[in-house]
């Protein structure tokens, strides 16, 4: 991304749209500390989080802050050799020092909330795509993040499974969870976003409320993109 300047409130749902290769997923990977930046800074929770000019080459400066950012990937990234329960309790025990009993109780609550309590002892290979993605969301929520990142989490799912995952994300939105969402689903983007950011060629072209972006985009490049994906008049 080049000359990117974004800010968000604690209850924002920032949805990033744009053509492939525009840097959307890279932004989320930077926020998670999976990719470094060569310049610029990111603040989180009012503290310096990432500094592109620091000696650590733009990696997160504070591991404690990093654990407050949760991410769900397109391809689940569940540990295939661990049960659903073990996938969920691993990080809270290591990061937050929870006992196995405490972590298990917490996992049961999250799985029940997402309609997956019966899958507690199942393995990822025994789950549908929608179930895997809901388990991945539950696993991220186990660390009680202040910000959730979703990277094309429904693009690999069958249409029926897309709805299950999007319903969970809408529930999080209703609970005022701060989220940054990368998606190609414009209908979902319009429904969940408090603000839409359109990126192209590594730059932010336009941003604004979903009603404005989707019906009256100001920039020609935004309109061109939306005409292709939404068939605007």
TrEMBL record:
It is a peripheral membrane protein. Pfam families: ABC_tran. PROSITE patterns: ABC_TRANSPORTER_1, ABC_TRANSPORTER_2. It is found in: Cell inner membrane. Signal peptide: none annotated. Residues 1-226 form the ABC transporter domain. InterPro entries: AAA+_ATPase, ABC_ATPase_HisP-typ, ABC_transporter-like_ATP-bd, ABC_transporter-like_CS, MetN_ABC_transporter-like. Its main location: membrane. GO terms for molecular function: ATP binding. Keywords: Amino-acid transport, ATP-binding, Cell inner membrane, Cell membrane, Membrane, Nucleotide-binding, Transport. Belongs to the ABC transporter superfamily. This is Amino acid ABC transporter ATP-binding protein.
């Amino acid at each position: 991304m080049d000359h990117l300047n974004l800010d968000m409130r604690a209850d924002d749902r920032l949805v990033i749209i744009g053509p492939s290769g525009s840097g959307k997923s890279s932004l989320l990977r930077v926020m998670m500390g999976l990719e470094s930046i060569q310049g610029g800074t990111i603040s989180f929770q009012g503290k310096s989080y990432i500094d592109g000019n620091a000696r650590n080459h733009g990696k997160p400066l504070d591991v404690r802050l990093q654990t407050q950012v949760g991410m769900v990937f397109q391809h689940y990234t569940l540990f295939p050799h661990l049960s659903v329960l073990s996938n969920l309790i691993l990080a809270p025990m290591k990061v937050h020092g929870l006992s196995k009993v405490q972590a298990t109780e917490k996992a049961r609550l999250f799985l029940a909330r997402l309609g997956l309590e019966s899958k507690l002892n199942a393995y990822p290979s025994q789950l549908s795509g929608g179930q895997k993605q809901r388990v991945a969301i539950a696993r991220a929520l186990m660390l009680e993040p202040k910000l959730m990142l979703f990277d094309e989490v429904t693009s690999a799912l069958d249409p029926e499974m897309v709805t299950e995952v999007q319903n969970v994300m809408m529930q999080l939105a209703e609970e005022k969870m701060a989220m940054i969402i990368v998606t190609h689903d414009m209908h979902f983007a319009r429904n969940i976003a408090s603000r839409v950011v359109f990126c192209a060629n590594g730059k932010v072209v336009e941003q604004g409320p979903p009603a404005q972006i989707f019906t009256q985009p100001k920039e020609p490049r935004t309109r061109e993109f939306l005409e292709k994906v939404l068939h605007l008049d």
